[in-house]
Design goal:
Blueprint: E1 12-14, E2 21-23, E3 26-30, H1 35-40, E4 52-55, E5 60-61, E6 66-69, E7 76-78, E8 80-86, E9 102-110, E10 112-113, H2 114-122, H3 128-131, E11 137-139, E12 143-144, H4 145-148, E13 155-160, E14 163-169, H5 177-184, E15 194-197, E16 205-206, E17 212-217, E18 221-230
Parallel strand pairs: 3-15, 5-11, 6-18
Antiparallel strand pairs: 1-2, 3-4, 7-10, 7-16, 8-9, 8-15, 9-11, 9-12, 13-14, 13-17, 17-18
Length: 231
């Protein structure tokens, strides 16, 4: 097959304690999946059906990298998240079988151009430019289920320059990982390499150039991101 342009390189994420990597197919994100965060965003935290948005696969950034402060925003935010990595695909997956489709878990940071996101939200427009910009998905090494199990409780914490900004427990998720996987699979066929960022707790806030942002989740370690000058 001849292409007019060279195909894009395959985006990938690291695997903990291994030289192997996981190719990234798609990145799905769950919106407002912690009640306290829903409240701080001015929304009702009742257990209404979850909603999803996406980031492009090539938005992935690894642990320890520097992310330039992105263009077109004056309000870049951090969002600590548990990331579930699909290893076995499927459609209309039963909740009771959903965890069988998860290969592993990672620590994530859903970087957000909050001013752009909120302006779009208030006008009823898509969030793409607020969420799916370049280098907006910080994903740490993926830990296999066979090593860490399926985290459903334990600390999820984020600090900026050593000051804790987000401090919650995975047990506070409104929609659990098996519920998320099952519900998402009703709309799309999940495939190996699909990543699901499961939502962020309360305490989101701004980052500026020079900040060092650290996210940690019990049993999965921590990741660090430095914010560089505006790109």
């Amino acid at each position: 097959m001849t292409y007019i342009f060279d195909p894009m390189p395959t985006s990938s994420v690291a695997v903990a304690d291994s030289d192997a990597r996981i190719p990234v197919r798609r990145i799905f994100c769950v919106g407002r999946n912690y009640a306290a965060h829903a409240r701080e965003m001015g929304r009702d935290p009742d257990r209404e059906p979850p909603f999803f948005f996406t980031k492009p696969a090539d938005a992935v950034v690894g642990d320890g990298e520097t992310v330039a402060y992105p263009p077109e925003t004056e309000n870049l935010h951090y969002e600590a998240e548990l990331v579930a990595v699909i290893g076995t695909g499927g459609r209309d997956i039963a909740e009771a079988e959903a965890l069988d489709h998860v290969w592993g878990y990672a620590v994530g940071n859903d970087l957000t151009r909050r001013d752009i996101q909120l302006a779009a939200r208030d006008k009823g427009r898509p969030w793409d430019m607020g969420k799916g910009f370049d280098r907006s998905a910080v994903i740490g090494p993926v830990h296999p289920v066979e090593t860490v199990g399926h985290p459903d409780k334990g600390s999820i914490k984020l600090s900026v320059n050593g000051e804790v900004r987000q401090d919650a427990d995975l047990a506070e998720l409104i929609w659990s990982v098996p519920e998320i996987v099952s519900i998402l699979s009703r709309s799309v066929t999940l495939r190996p390499g699909d990543l699901i960022m499961t939502g962020t707790p309360a305490g989101v806030g701004p980052l500026v150039a020079g900040d060092v942002c650290t996210v940690s989740i019990a049993g999965l370690g921590s990741i660090e991101t430095r914010i560089g000058p505006r790109g």
